[in-house]
Write the structure tokens for this entry.
Amino acid sequence: MQEYLERKARSAGPLLTLDSPSTERFRLLLQAVHTFFENPQPEVLETIEAQIATAELAMMRSSVMSQRVEKESETEKQRLRKHREEKEFIEHQEVVLRQELVKAKQLRKKIQEYQKLMKEINKLPPRVRALEDIDRFRTDELQPAEDRQKKLRIMLNEYRAHVNLLSGVMNRVESVSEDAGFTVSNKTRNGGTESSKRSSCKRGSSSRSRKSKVDDEKDRKRRYDSRYRSDSTCFREKRARRSAPCDVNANSYYK
């Protein structure tokens, strides 16, 4: 019986040990067993059975509590693992949501810009009306301007041809006059280019407008003096030729 109780104590674990000071119940059980061996009595046997039942109940309770503690520990570990997974998932979702928030802000900014552009586009005239305005402008203004430009180019080419022809004629007149023995006056020599000078003066009217009135007056006086001197010189030369003897070809050319 003592060996049986010792095996029960060893199977019970640290709750029931021979060396433990808290196992008063086990010590009482051993005393009852010794008493029963010395003087077997039914009351002592009932006490032993009660003590054994109490010990078994305590061991069962300890086993149940140990299993409960292990189960609760495993449950807490699973719960902690689940909380960690949920935390990682939430952190990942937070990162994803922040990225989506940045994209949403950029998209909202682009939408506002697009709305402004749409308002500006809606303010513009329709395409058909714009094309009609372009065609009308091309017909009413561009085409007449191109026609005038073509006419001016033709007139300019004709004018240049006339100037070249007149300059050639004047060169021929000068050569014939030199062969005949007299010179052409400066007024006649410059007559072919007088119109070109006047046209160039007209083209440069914008630059001449910047001159002062005093400069214009000086220029007019200078031109008048040069023309007067050239005319008087030519007149004196003509009088000298008329009074001087000349050959037949020169007289016929002068007449």
Notes: Confidence is low (pLDDT under 50) at residues 12-22, 199-203, 244-255. The first helix runs from residue 2 to 12. The radius of gyration is 67 Å. The chain has nine helices and no strands.
